[in-house]
Amino acid sequence: MNSHPYVRAYLAGIVVPTLFMLAVFCAFVVPHFFILKETVPIERFLIFPMALAPNAFGAWNMLYLRLRQSGYIPIGFHGALLPFLIAPFGFFVGHSLGFVAAGDGRITWFQAISFPYALVATGFAIALAVYYLVWKYFVNFFNELLGIA
């Protein structure tokens, strides 16, 4: 089945973040609407990742398919490079919209939650490891399932 390999690569790429974001969304919605009976502006911090993550994974998997044709790059390493694009883009959009501010050795999120740079760097390192493992095992599995690996 050689027809439309880039469409299949995109579809294989969006599976993992789509399922993950669905689980995260349910984890936020169920307690707030059914248990706590209060509304929380979840759209402020969930809509952007829900739109960005699956599309970024799909496009990144399409790029992997193209790069693999011209030379070998391990899929885990390729996936671990994605946070280097997502994090600055997310910070730029958040800063432009006034949701994220940096200064005084801290990053402040929605003018309410503040994290020191060391914690942000640690979280970024953990994200790199998670992305490596997700791409190596899950995205690669779906690539093989769709016959593009």
Characterization of the model:
- With 149 residues, the protein is mainly alpha-helical.
- It has one domain (5-145).
- Helix content is 72%, strand content 8%.
- It has five helices and three strands, in the order ααααβββα.
- It has helices at residues 5-35, 43-70, 75-80, 83-96, 117-145; strands at 100-103, 106-109, 113-116.
- A three-stranded antiparallel β-sheet has the order 1-2-3.
- α1 packs antiparallel against α2 and α1 crosses α5.
- The protein is globular.
Write a brief caption for the model:
This protein is mainly alpha-helical and 149 residues long.
Task: Please give the structural blueprint.
Blueprint lengths: L4 H31 L7 H28 L4 H6 L2 H14 L3 E4 L2 E4 L3 E4 H29 L4
Antiparallel strand pairs: 1-2, 2-3
What key attributes describe this structure?
mainly alpha; 5 helices; 3 strands
